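Example 3.2
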Amino acid sequence: MIEPLVDVARDFPILQREINGHRLVWLDSAATAQKPNQVIDSVNDFYRWSNANVLRSVHTLAAEATTAFAESRRDIARFIGARKSEEVIFTRGTTEALNLVARGLGDSLTKVGDEIVVSPMEHHSNLIPWQQLAKRTGATLRYVELAQDGTITVDALRAVIGPSTRIVALSKVSNVLGTVNPIQAAGEMVHHVGGIIVVDGAQSVPHEPTDVQQLDIDFLAFSGHKMCGPTGIGVLWGKSQWLDQMEPLQYGGEMISYVDRDTATWAEVPEKFEGGTPNIAGSIGLSAATRYLSNIGMKKVHQHSQALGQLAFDTLYEIPAVTVYGPGRPHGAAIAFNIEGIHPHDIAQVFDSLGIAIRAGHHCAQPLMQWLGVGSTARASVYLYNGEQDILRLREAILETKRYFRR
């Protein structure tokens, strides 16, 4: 029996809700994770007792807020194995972080004849910025081809990464298939030819131990809301050598070093990229989320996510008239599926009537849907507060959906 980790479900007040007379089963964590009391309380306490702007005033509340903001950056740097906290840039989420790299560094890094390598499984946030960069600079966008089961092989990487490759942009884990990608191999190849690797960690950082030094990547982007933190806060981590070269995209308060009527110079990293009032409460909430997850242990979280994701995949695979997409093993926490003859949106509506939340649609991955040969899928995604009982509910909901549409 796979239970929620150390009974963590009790830390999440929203999981006490009933939906349509049924206990809520949250199987949409790939879209956003629920928040434990520890995170909710940290945000409330900031607004209740220490609310002030940072890096500006010298009064007590401003000093408290500035200290908490700096401590949050240090907590997050430790969580991902960064050498120093200055390499952590606060953004609104993964999308803004990836766009910051594509625009702030990509324009100076690529030109006509250069190549940018992506995969068909990428979330739109890790595809469109590189499409637009290629259009601006005349670089060529190349795709690493997927194996039949939706994985990326080392041989497939070798086929597209070459002397002209300047940027490789890949997700660590697919938000649809749960595919775990060979990031270290891709990084070694692109570094060998003098390029950089940018990693979308939105689906990996919440579920597994992350060490950017061990991975030897150049950039990592992830979102707070997928790892029990608040919405509207995310992180771009980058190697200092690249952050120093990057141009800021937003100009204004606190990203300035000096201004006169005709010129301006920028503050040091990370302030250079954080113009305007930052999401202070969000950073504090994300810091609380990293402490919450660290207290449980990211190795335990990873084992739990893999075991439960595997159980869900295997369970759905055995149900007649159900198609499950992606590799059987290893499998992440997201499971995409369809029921023969039933639209994914109809599946999701029946599930909701039973108190089960899943996602239906193209999951912001339309090229992957085209590769799969479908317009959309249903998707169930698990996290540390789910247990084997939730997978049984998932199975029963599929059987009930089939019975409903037969009637």
